[in-house]
Amino acid sequence: MNQGTYPLAAAMINQINRLDVISNNLANANTNGFKEEGLSEGTFNNYLKEARESNVSIMNESAAVNNIPKIDQKYISSALGPIEMTGNKLDFALKDQDTFFKVQNENGEVMYTRDGSFKVLNNSLLVDGNGNFVLNNDNEAITTEDDFLQTIAVVKTDFPNLDKFGDNYYRAKDINKVEVQENNEGFLLQGAVEKSNVNMVNTMIGLIDASKSFAQSQKAITTIDEMNRSLIQKLGRMV
């Protein structure tokens, strides 16, 4: 394979990954509490440089003569989404960007979310939109008594300490970095929900850009292939 096709093929793979992430962002543009995701790129040579600086033995054959692009990491935008007033006493928005509600799924796993659109199950239990129990500070399911507002747990941790799964839930990488707030006063806004922080205009521009970049790399590979074919044909006639 022509050496020029390696970085182009890698760039196409990166754009496919970008398209997947951007499409998921668009699909969740109306999901309460959803946080936009993004990808950052690095190069293969940059990873080799970091390995050398860490005194990792690198074979000479590993040295790349071109900057093959590689997905560096996926990140989550912690920016607050717009607050929508609903007037529903079971709707809650979190005022701080690094705070979360605690919920528990049917397997007993504690998860974190910013979607505060709650409901009542069996006339007593507070649940989220997917039927997961909303928890208090002791990881107990909350019953909707008169003072249930004060029992809703709020935890605080940075987004880098979280792994996202599903569209709207997170797991803590290090539970010791999750701070349980003893009092939720000042953190909650009742009768409101936080909407998705996805910017539709910027996201559509990103989708178009990723599609164009993919097409350009694909066209470049086709051009290289045509040049190689032409060169082989000319060499064949010369023999």
Task: Sum this structure up briefly.
The chain is 30% helix and 24% strand. The protein is α+β, with helices and mostly antiparallel strands and 239 residues long. Helix 1 runs antiparallel to helix 3.
Attribute tags:
239 residues; alpha+beta; five-stranded antiparallel beta sheet; 30% helix; elongated
What would your notes on this structure say?
The protein is an alpha+beta fold. The protein has two domains: 5-78 and 198-238, no CATH class; 83-194, no CATH class. Helices cover 30% and strands 24% of the residues. It is built from three helices and 15 strands. It has helices spanning 5-27, 44-53, 200-238; strands at 37-43, 69-76, 83-85, 92-94, 99-104, 110-113, 119-121, 125-127, 133-134, 154-156, 162-165, 169-172, 179-180, 188-190, 192-194. Strands 5, 6, 9, 10 and 13 form a five-stranded antiparallel β-sheet that branches. Strands 1-2 form a two-stranded antiparallel ribbon. It starts with a helix and ends with a helix.
Note the overall shape.
Answer: elongated
Which range does the strand content fall in?
15-25%
Sheet with most strands = 5 strands, antiparallel
User: How many strands?
Assistant: 15
Q: Element order, helices and strands?
A: HEHEEEEEEEEEEEEEEH
Instruction: Determine the fraction of residues in helical runs and give it as a percent range.
Output: 25-40%
- The tally of domains stands at 2
Q: Give unreliable regions as ranges.
A: none
Distance between the termini: 23 Å
Mean pLDDT reading: 86
Report the structural category. alpha+beta
Give the C-alpha Rg. Answer: 25 Å
How many alpha or pi helices?
A: 3
